[in-house]
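Reviewers of the previous submission asked for a worked example of the structure-prediction workflow described in the proposal, so we include one complete record here. The input consisted solely of the amino acid sequence. No template or homolog information was supplied to the procedure at any stage.
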Amino acid sequence: MTFASHRWTFALVVACGCGGGSNDAGSTTDGPQTTTTSTTASTTDDSGLTTTTTTASSSAGTDEPAPPTTGPGTTTEATSDPTAATTETGTTGEPVDPPDLCAGLVQDLMDRPMTPLEKPEVGATVVDAEFGTTIRRISGVTAMGANPVVKPAYSTIAAWNTDETRLILYDVTEGHLLYDGKTYESLKKLPIDPPDLEQFYWHGSDPSIVMFMHGKTLVRFDVDTEVEAPVHTFDFCGGPVSGGSDPMFSSWDSNRFGFICDDQVFVYDVATDAVLGQVTLDENPAQIAPSGSLAYLSDTGRVVDPALEVLRTLDLLEPWGHASLGMLANGHDTWNGFVYDPGPGGNDDIGALVTWDLTDATSRVIIGPKTGYPYPPAGHISALAVHRPGWVVVSTIGDPAGQGLLDLELLLADTNTGQVCRVGRHRSCGQNNTNLGEPYWAAPTAVPSPSGTRILFGSDWGGGETVDAYVVELPSYTP
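From that input alone, the workflow returned the following structure tokens.
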């Protein structure tokens, strides 16, 4: 989305060039976790969506997920296999455990005040003294124009392709740029023009293919040959098709997409070349969950099936908050987001990372007051470590002076277990930047590589007049 359509959640914005101050406002009191309560009904609302399950308000529990709801064009199993994604093969051909992503990373709750760190040259690295991690600068934008920026397109869109050999960054002036995903060499400008800057989707298994909407046609684009091939044209649309103003990724197998055109919201299945669900709706389109079996309507918090029948509703006051759809190791789709206030039904799980299981509407605080962290600052979330289901990257803003816990931090969390490790500081001011024409571009919008062993982010490096792309290569990363 363009910066104008982006929904920021700031309690207080401090106008500074990345100086002191804080945008944290308020706190919550820890309380007992609630238990799941739900009833079953079938109703049709004013929008035409059929609801088969009422709102559930819950905290993490042990209830089994409800049986999948089937209907025209729906499936009863996930369309991707998270078990296969988490298994690696050793030199003997025997399966081996994937690396521990938190190995060698800080896992305490100390403030660890930020100290000065010189901005590295392009290709060079520096070590974050407070966290011991290595940060590599991979772009060198020229300080020209109001917004000299090269950074990841957005936290909810994969930057690396599936085998991590290619990487797409966004240059505010030049457009989409292709980099070598291993050496970070700049390769070329890509001649693609999706509906909005972040609405491109690396294919789940073909490392050369990017998919995006071109007018009313979904296309496959080969980044090596630059050949564009049509997948499907949506002739029922009067105008162009897009992922809306709050886009997420596709299903992780690149088979299902949620789109909107005119007043039509619909789900498209590539394998069957069919529209599985289509309704007239004054909302953003359904965001397809990684399995492809569920989707999420971010304007209302409703979880739907591919036919767009409502299954349940998450008890979120702001269901459109900064979030990323992910998947647990058990195959359950999840909503992972910042939550600042109790839900209308009383759910009090608040934090910088709260994970909701979309199969049963249970929630769990991963990073928040209930787990020892402060009230959440502004930030972004990315659950796109697609080969390590459950691992999520969080980038926060907080106090731009970087003196406390969750100030300008990059964090990595395993939502399967609740383990959290602190990666380092991105040193970018976000909306506090006073040197860019549009401070939105200073948000780090960090995103992991598919293996979860690297984290890409943008940074103005202390409120500067340019934003470049940086990569943290975790101790678990093997070049």
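Confidence is low (pLDDT under 50) at residues 1-17, 19-42, 52-87. We consider this example representative of the routine output the project will generate in years two and three.
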